[in-house]
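hey so i finally got around to running both of the ones u sent me last week. sorry it took forever, my laptop kept dying halfway thru and i had to restart like 3 times lol. anyway pasting them below in the order u listed, first the sequence line then the C-alpha cell line for each. didnt double check formatting much so if smth looks off just lmk and ill redo it

first one:
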Amino acid sequence: MAEAESTVINTNVKQKDPNEALVIAVTTRAIFNLEEEHQLFLTKGKEEYVKYQQVNEDKPLEQGTAFAFIQAVQFVNEKLLERNPEEKGLFDVIILSNNSPESGMRIVNSAKRHGLEISRFCFVSDEDSTQYLKSHNVKLFLSADRTDVCNALQRGVSAALIFQQEVQTPSTQLRVVFDGDAVLFSDETDRVFREKGLSGALEYEMAMEAVPMGEGPLKAFAMHLGKMRKKFSQENSPIRTYLLTARSGRNMGIRAIKTLREWGLAIDEAFFMDGAPKGPLLSQIQPHIFFDDGLHNIQGAQDIGIPSALVPCDC
C-alpha cells in the first residue's frame, strides 16, 4: 500500500498521555449524522462532496448514534479530574476519518460547536484509516463502515459497527451493555450450538465449566473500562457496566461468571436471559451503547431508541 495521505489536527483540549489514557477512535459518520452527505458522495462523487462540505463548513452537523456515548465519556473525565486534577488515566477521544483535510474543517467546527473534547482529528483521504489504530494506541474503534470494523478487528483492536438511528437521551452516568458470547467471550459455544444444537452446547458447557472461556473481540476494551471503573466507589461511580446474554443462568451462567472472575473483570449487573428478548431490559437500563453480535438484537434495540453497535462475527 502506498503511504497514506493523512493530516492530524490537534485542538487545545487538555493534553492526555496516550500510554495511560483509554483511547477511543470514532469515525465522522459514527459521531455525527452525515447520511445525506454520504449519499451525495456516493451519487455525485468526491469533488461535489468536498465542495458541499466547504460551503457548509460553518453549519454544525447533527448528532449521530455515538454522540451521547462520547458525551458520557467526557462526563467521566470530569469526575476523574475532580478526584485528582493530575489524573492521567482519562478517556482520550480521537476522530479518525476518510475525509480529506479540505472537507474536514466542518468536522472540526462541529465538534467545537457541540463542546466535544476531541483531542485529535485524523483525515486520511480515502486510505484504510485502521492502519493508524495501533499507532494511536486505540482501545475501541466505532465506525459506520463494516469494512473498517472488520479491518480493525483483524488488527486486534476492539471495534463495532454503528448504524445511524434515532436515540433517546440517557443519563449522564456512562452505561455500557455487553453481550456475552462472540462479544466479551469467544464464540466457541456458539460454534458448538450451530453444529450440535442446544443439547450439545449444554453438554459442552458442563464439561468445560471449570475452564475459562476464550477472549472475545471486546474483552480488551471491557478490561480497560473495568480498570477505570475501579477508581470510583460503587455508590458514586459515573460508570456502570452490564452483561446481557442469551445464556441461561442455571445451565450456562456459571462458566460466564467464573470467566469474569478469572479475568478480574467486575461487571455491575449481569442478566442471563435464556433466550428471552433483551429489549425490555435495555429500555430500563437506557445505555449509551449496547454491543451485540446478533443483528436481530441490534434491530430490536434500535426500535426502542437504544444506541447500538454490531460486533461482526463473520469478518
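and the second one:
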Amino acid sequence: MESQKKTGQSVNKTSTSEKDEEEECCANTSCEKNENQKPSSPKQGDFSDPVYKEIAVENGTINRMNKDELRAKCAELKLDTRGVKDVLRKRLKSYYKKQKLMHSAAANGSTDTYFDYICVVDFEATCEENNPPDYLHEIIEFPMVLIDMHTLEIVDSFQQYVKPVVNPQLSEFCVKLTGITQKMVDEAETFHQVLKRAVSWLQEKELGTKYKYTFLTDGSWDMGKFLHTQCKLSCIRYPQFARKWINIRKSYGNFYKVPRTQTKLICMLENLGMQYDGRPHCGLDDSRNIARIAIYMLKDGCQLRVNECLHSGEPRSVPISAPIEGAPAPQTPQKRD
C-alpha cells in the first residue's frame, strides 16, 4: 500500500457536525495532552531504585560491543541473532532490562501485556500512476491480521475485496500495483456491506467485550485518510473502534532509534533480518508482514501502545501521558444523516 500512501490526497473539508463529533470523541479518548495526567506505567515513576543503575551499567557494556560481539551475546542468551547493529543492541538492552526488573521490586507488580490482541490493518485503494489533486481513493481490499499478545503469534485473518463506486474502473497502474483485477472488484460487495462483515468478524472474536484489543497500521494513512475518506463517500459514520491506533512506523523509529527513512516496510523487515513474505501491495500480505515486524518488536521488549488518533478528520499524535486503554467493542456501521 506504500505507493498509494505516498500519493494519497485529503478529501473535502470535514463538515461541522462531523468535526464536532470527532473532537468530542478525541477529547474523550485523551488525544489532547493533559498536563495533570499521571503516568500510566508504574515504571515511569521513581528511577532511584538501584536496579536502574545496574541496567545503566549493562547498557554501557552493550554500547561498547561491535556487531560480532553483539551477535555472539545474543546467541549465548538464545536470542534472535538477526538484524543490524542497532537492532541487536536494542534487543540485548531490552532483554537485560526485563530480566532485572522481573527480579526487582522496581517492577512494582506491573505486567508487560495490556492488550490481549492487536489487529493489523493495511487497506488497498484505487489509484492512478499520477493521482490528480482531487482524486478520491476508494478502499478495494479490506484485510485484517490478528496477533495474540500472549503467544506472540498470528492467530487469524480476514480479507474482503470491495466494489469501488466513484471510480469503478480500476486503472492499469492500480491492477499491476495491487494484483487486484477488475473482475475481483466487480464481483465484490460495497464498502458498507464489507464493513459489516468486518465488524461481525471482530465481534465473533469477542474483541472489546471479553478481550482488550487495538489496531495497528503501517503509517497514518489507513485510518487517517483511506478509512476516513471511504466512510464519507459511503455516507457512513466513522467507526468509534478505529479512532485510535498504533502507527508502527513511529513505534519502530522510537524504539530502535532510527530515522524516518528507515521505517518503510521493506527497511524495517531488512533491519530485523527478515525478507518480505508474499506479494507486495497485496493488503493481506502487507498486513501479515507488518504483523511479523510487530511480533519481533514485542520479542525485543517493545511495549506497543496507541500513538495516534483521528481528530477533526486528521491523524494526530497521542501523548505518552495518555492512559492505556483498548478500543471499544465494534458496532454495526451507522449511516450518516
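quick thing i noticed on the 2nd:
Residues 74 and 247 are 28 Å apart (CA to CA).
anyway thats it, ttyl
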